[in-house]
Design brief:
Helix content: 25-40%
Number of strands: 5
Radius of gyration: 12 Å
CATH architecture: 3-Layer(aba) Sandwich
Length: 105
Amino acid sequence: MTLELTNTNFEETIKTDKPVLVDFWAQWCGPCKMLGPIVDEVSVDYTDKVVVGKVDVDNQRELSIKYGIRNIPTMVVFKNGEIVDRLVGALPKQKITEVLEKHLN
């Protein structure tokens, strides 16, 4: 299941030893709308292995600034609260899962 991340729950969500995939997106962003269902699929496929969340950049500007989000969609992978990878653009599911797989161990 994909979590809606906000200033309130973001820090506690990313501080886990599981990889955390965070999709920074916006309602008005066409590529974000294309990527959304793929991120949801990844969330289902990796239910017990990866935490998946989304940040609406229009509603959570502070998080976008803090993590240097300049283009959307941008997906950031965290592990133990630290950034371990970053993906920019509407990428295919295979590319996203390849990146997640390398952070599972």
